[in-house]
Amino acid sequence: AEVIIVRNQDEAGKIYAQCVTDLIVRKPDCVLGLATGSSPLAAYEALARDVNERHIDVSQVRGFALDEYAGLDPRHPQSYRSTITRTVVEPLGLDPEKIHVPNGDLDSIQEAGAAYDEAIARAGGVDIQILGIGTDGHIGFNEPGSSLASGTRIKTLTEQTRIDNARFFDDDISKVPSHCITQGIGTILKARHLVLLAFGAGKAEAVAETVEGGISSFCPASALQLHPHATVIVDEAAASRLR
Ligand code: F6R
Which sign, positive or negative, has the C-alpha torsion 24, 222, 138, 41? Predict the structure, then answer.
């Protein structure tokens, strides 16, 4: 992967925004791969600023999110559907009909994964996929041990991830869904350009493992080494364990 060390999240956000605005101008109906979590927020803000200031036409832009909780009403404020609407769709002024989030409805979740991968393929594949990384090296909800060839599917959340996410559910772990539907590592690797963002010392070990460790399902993000066009954008703290 190409590693870019930046001073702060705003600088990282500007690099992402530049990539995406170039893409939209070149390909107005491009397909963005979207992530939730804190890491991409400055990037979405920078992109929204560029799009709005330069009056870039985003009416045809399409998008696919990485993951969603299982069995949580998509209208719940903490669903990833709601989160993507709040942080991406509204600030950029995207057409909500063109933005897809995996369907976590329990009645159809067994079939929903393959259907999601087919929908991505029918859209022509993801052009730029933004990614955060967990302190354990997860991408999407692909925790350590996930197959590097996996497609979109239902997964069990680890205890640690449920503890980490309890802050979004009144600090009550019993309210955190136990399962999710997530793009697989194989799905993520099909995107044409991967942009992984990581900030803070807490991510340093995972970043070093991703970029300089062996390719292993024990660090799902290390699959980026299999990808021909992966960009890892980190601050000094997140880069501190790189050799
Ligand atoms: C987000 C996602 C997760 C996060 C990761 C890092 O859709 O699937 O993999 O990217 O947990 O989260 P933050 O950015 O909050 O540190």
Answer: negative
Residue type, 209: E
Asked if the model's pLDDT at residue 9 lies above 90, the reply is yes
Task: Tell me, using a 6 A CB cutoff, whether residue 67 lines ligand 1.
Answer: yes
Give the Å distance between the CA of 24 and the centre of ligand 1: 24
21 phi/psi in degrees, rounded to 5: -65, -40
Amino acid at 4: I
Minimum CA distance residue for ligand 1 atom 2: 140
Amino acid in the structure at residue 83? T
Catalytic positions: 67, 136, 138, 143
Phi-psi bin for 68: left (phi > 0), alpha (psi -120 to 50), beta?
beta
| Model ipTM value | 0.98
Name the pTM for this structure: 0.98
pLDDT digits (tens, 9 = 90+) for 159-187: 988 998 999 999 999 999 999 999 999 99
> Mind listing the domains of the chain with CATH numbers?
2-235 (3.40.50.1360)
Backbone angles phi, psi at 75, to 5 degrees: -85, -10
Cα–Cα separations (whole angstroms), residue 98 to 118, 153, 180, 192: 15, 21, 22, 19
